[in-house]
Design a protein that fits this description.
Number of helices: 3
Oligomer: single chain
Structural class: mainly alpha
Amino acid sequence: MDRRLIVTEIGRLRRSLAMAPTLPADEVRWVLDEAERLVRDREHLCEITRRLAGPWSDVRSALNELHRLAGD
């Protein structure tokens, strides 16, 4: 499956949770929370890597931010 989740799809899945009472709601919420965090992290990393093609000050800033993220 090549398609990736986007934040709006995660919201749709959250709203659909009420329609699936046989699933453990706490676990499904946890999975959706993690999926949303990963999507937002991916969007943030994409924004940082786009700055790597800019002027040197943007590149330096992006590299510093990537370094901070890698240390967390």
